[in-house]
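User: Here's a chain of 129 residues. Predict its fold as tokens.
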Amino acid sequence: MNIIQPQEWSKPKGFSHGVSVEGPGRWIVLAGQTGNENGVFVADIGKQTEIALHKVIKLLKEAGAGPEHIVRLTWYLTDREAYVAAGADIGAAWKATLGRNFPPSTLLYVAGLVDPAAKVEIEVTAFVP
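Assistant: Prediction complete.
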């Protein structure tokens, strides 16, 4: 995968503007993962994010992939202020699961998710060459 980064643009922090992928390979598309374990949500958005990212890594592993294969993340968040306040915890969860991989990401703030206790849902697209 090649990161798309125009020289005249400042480099984004924590994501890439885009990536290009060439050659034969296998696409992996994950449904949105939420921060629940065994059907139970913790109240903290930072912990929910950590759980969701661990679930993403587990699913990728099941498919023979890892965080280095992620080509797109879409985040659905229900509380902007809570997300900003949990920045350090979310950063730590990212580092523990995705490491130094910063694929293109889109964050959307939504009125709610299917389960009212869910504060974050993360969709993933990956490509294994």
